[in-house]
Write a structure and sequence with these properties.
The protein folds into two domains: 128 residues, 3-Layer(aba) Sandwich (Rossmann fold); 171 residues, Glucose Oxidase, domain 1, CATH 3.50.30.60. It contains nine helices and 17 strands. Strands 6-17-16-15-10-11-12-13-9 form a nine-stranded mixed β-sheet. Strands 2-1-3-4-5-14 form a six-stranded mixed β-sheet, with helices on both faces. Strand 12, helix 9 and strand 13 form a beta-alpha-beta unit. The longest helix has 13 residues.
């Protein structure tokens, strides 16, 4: 589709993204044949806190609510996009508006699905598109994702702890999928979720999605400690129907994190969080690590663990496949 792409800053301002990096991302989108509008508020923060201006973002959402078609991409995440969710209830968004985001945008994307049944793309932000390290193969994946095309993703040979724009990262050999409690293959269902630390901020609100019979995708910041991971997952389990999920899919952690070790993470989830007998898949590449690949919140997903295949459909025209070769 050829609608305009809007770049905004719903959480952190864009101060940490250099002009050179922005130009790289802008030119990449232009090369893809996209019309791009970068909102003039992305560098404005509130009281020098790097938190973007709430009033700017409310004006932006109101503008987008009058559009029939658009693709909305944030600069990156942060911690404070939940200050905008009350505004969502006052607005209406056309189903052809494609919201994208990652990390803290988990809050807005899941709220949009809960309120309006709007499907969105988790795993795409402007910072990723600005990366000079993106391979041509990965570039095609993101191009196809924002164009609602079928995409094929090969299991990456290496990965790192992400945040390329902060410093150079060391690559490590990738870690294979691990599975638990799978009694059918493939598994089919609707995908929801995103960043664990962000989605728990929706607990106690009307915006928290229903996890029952869903395939729940959960990832964390790369360097989360085992104790904080257990605390956050336990919180979500106690405050929701997470224990009624059809399957839980966990993303990768930082290369040296003990949570990448199956003999550590699974006993913690089973014995300390209390998630027992639920089908689980571990070490899937949709996290804060790099490379990291998108999925559709609210889209149909099919997981074939024998073939390491994920087929994901957002709408009739939103189709892509995840294929991992191990």
């Amino acid at each position: 589709m050829d609608e305009k792409i809007y770049i905004w800053a719903p959480s952190n301002s864009a101060i940490d993204l250099t002009e050179e990096s922005r130009e790289y991302g802008f030119n990449r989108l232009k090369t893809w044949g996209k019309k791009v509008e970068i909102e003039n508020h992305i560098d404005r923060d509130y009281l020098n806190t790097k938190i973007s201006q709430k009033t700017d973002n409310i004006k932006f959402l109101r503008k987008i609510s009058n559009k029939k078609s658009a693709t909305i991409i944030p600069v990156f995440g942060g911690y404070t996009s939940n200050i905008l969710i009350d505004e969502l209830k006052k607005l209406h968004f056309d189903s052809n508006i494609l919201f994208c985001g990652k990390s803290d945008l988990t809050v807005l994307l899941n709220a949009l699905y809960t309120i309006f049944n709007i499907k969105s793309v988790y795993g795409v932000d402007f910072a990723q598109l600005c990366s000079p390290n993106m391979s041509l193969e990965d570039e095609k994946i993101f191009y196809d994702a924002i164009n609602r095309k079928k995409i094929v993703i090969k299991y990456p040979k290496y990965f790192n702890d992400g945040f390329w724009y902060i410093s150079k990262r060391k690559n490590y050999l990738n870690i294979n999928w691990k599975i638990e409690n799978l009694n059918q293959n493939p598994i089919k269902g609707v995908a929801i979720g995103g960043n664990l630390e962000s989605i728990i901020t929706l607990t106690g609100t009307e915006f928290l999605p229903i996890f029952k019979d869903k395939i729940v995708m959960l990832e964390s910041v790369c360097d989360i400690s085992p104790s904080k991971f257990v605390r956050d997952l336990k919180h979500l389990n106690m405050a929701s129907d997470l224990n009624m999920a059809k399957t839980i899919v966990f993303g990768k952690f930082a290369p040296l994190s003990p949570l990448n070790k199956h003999e550590i993470i699974y006993p913690l989830i089973k014995d300390y969080v209390g998630l027992i007998n639920i089908p689980m898949v571990f070490n899937v590449d949709f996290s804060h690590t790099e490379p990291s690949y998108p999925f559709y919140i609210g889209g149909d997903i099919q997981i074939n663990t024998e073939k390491k295949l994920l087929k994901h459909t957002g709408k009739d025209y939103l189709i892509f496949y995840w294929i991992f070769f191990l």
